[in-house]
Every structure is written in structure tokens, then in C-alpha cells.
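To the team - adenosine-5'-triphosphate complex, inputs and output below.
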Amino acid sequence: MTTELAIQTIDLTKRYKQRLAVESLSLEVQRGEVFGFLGPNGAGKTTTIAMLLGLVRPTAGQALLFGHDVQHDPVAALRNVGAMIEAPAFYPYLSGRDNLRVLARADGVPPARIDAVLAAVELSSRARDRFGTYSQGMKQRLAIAAALLADPDLIMLDEPTNGLDPAGTVEVRELIRSLATEGRTIFLCSHLLHEVEQVCSRVAIIKAGRRIAQGSVRELLQRGQVVQVRVVGAVAPAVALLQQVEWVRGVQHDGDLLLVDAPAARAPEINALLTRNDILVAEIRTREESLEQFFLEVTEHTT
Ligand code: ATP
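Output:
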């Protein structure tokens, strides 16, 4: 079966006794995109990844990878998938290369891949050093190298910069960006908005097991835009007028200052509309909330 979707979940649900860890989650990740799966701690990200990898059985719903059902056809579904879902467990006294050799042998991966993945994560020059001597960032990069061994089309990374110092974080983010340019699909789980914003093109935000937003980073950013208008007098007519406009998502006012929840690009139209209706505009400007504010807002206010 060919499909443009690398990942599709349909009403995917996981219940642990009374706790709904993941609730009716529907996601679509296109081939070749870097998709951010963002949510605060405990939101259900790891449980979702575990269901995608066939490690946890869903209570209901379906997970498909490249069109293959993970539960019913795990071999086909997971054939082109690499993952890093927990802190890497390597032998500290073996070199980076020897650690990969052990894994490659176990997984039937040709030894030639080892040098390729070491180069991809920029560890070639330290490949002979013992793993125990690596920095946290290098350890994490070796874990990503391990996930790349079988040359997967889809790579899932669960909190890849967890526990890293700022330098290690930068190293790993740069690595993710470079992997993205090779045409692989990347599914990046993180509770760090900043991380997702920097490397992902599309994002789903989950909270308490439920998807509360999904879209391109740009779209989500636009949702955080507000056009601020100061009118002379006529506040109530201005509010009434703007509330009727299709692309205005809401209007609040504080004295003569109107906060219009609308894309910043619409500011000239707002100005023209008010002026046409004989409402004098004293000031108009756009205010952009960061995706950070948006993320905090949606994760705070949605229960
Ligand atoms: P974090 O970033 O903190 O790991 P997360 O978004 O990955 O969070 P999950 O680890 O998927 O979230 O957990 C989602 C919810 O399910 C949490 O409330 C967690 O306590 C619960 N949970 C996870 N695994 C189990 C389990 N094996 N048994 C019972 N409850 C679980």
C-alpha cells in the first residue's frame, strides 16, 4: 500500500485503569516532514510513541505507519522506522563504534552502515573513544546514530535533548535539522516549545492525552496575532462591526482600545472597514504573541 502519510493515528486511545493517558488522538504526519509532538510533562507523548512502535497496545483506535497497521502488521509497519525513546543504554567501556557494532550485528545491519551513521552524527573522530568518556551531547548523538543504523525513512525521537547542557542541546538540534534535510520523516516529541519551533514545520499540541491544536508553526503563530486598534469614541459600534467579519475570531475592548483577534495581515482591512463606517481610527498596530505564549495559553486553559 502506498500512502503519503508516514504516520496516521485514528482515535488512538490508551487507558491505564482509571487514567486516560491518550484519548481519541488523530494525527497525520506527511512523509518527509519534521513533525513536532508537543505537550507538557505527562501529556501522553511517550505513551503515543510506544503505541506507534507497537510497544504498548492501544485500548482503542488505530496506529498506521506508512499505511500499515502497527497492531496487525507490525513487521511491515516498523520496517522503515528507527526510534530513540529513552536514555541510551550503551556499554561504557566499549568505544562508540564498538557499541554500534554490537547493535548492528544483533539487528543484521551491514557493518558499512556504522561509519555512515557515525559520520551523520559527526562522531567519526571520536568513534574509537570509550563511550564512558563522551559528553552528554555525544552520548545522545550516538543514540541517534543507533536509531539511524537501519537507514529508516521515519525516525521518532522522544525528548532528545533531555538532560543535556546548552552546548549538547545545540549539537543535538543541529543534528536533527541536518537529518531533516535528507528527506527522512522526523517525529519529535518534546515539552520544549522552543525546540519544536526551531526544527519542525508542523506541530500537534497535546494536553492530558488530547490533541488541542495542530497546524504549521506559521499557522499557530498567526493564531497568536492580535490587531490593536484605538478608536475615537464609537467603541460599541466598532466592536459590533468587527464581530460580523468572518476572519475576526474575537474582539475585546478596554476603554477605547480594541483588541481584535485576527491575522496581522488584515490590519489595513480593519482600518478601511472602520473608516468606511465613519469610525475614526486613532491608532492601529499588530501585536504578535510568541508561540511560547500561545503554547502556554492553550495548555493552561484547555482541560
Ligand atoms: P513526560 O514528558 O513526563 O514523559 P509524556 O507526555 O510522555 O510525559 P506519558 O509518559 O505518556 O506522558 O504519560 C501520560 C499519562 O499516563 C501520565 O499521567 C502517566 O502517569 C500515565 N502512565 C504512563 N505510563 C503508565 C503506566 N504504565 N501505567 C499507568 N499509568 C501510566
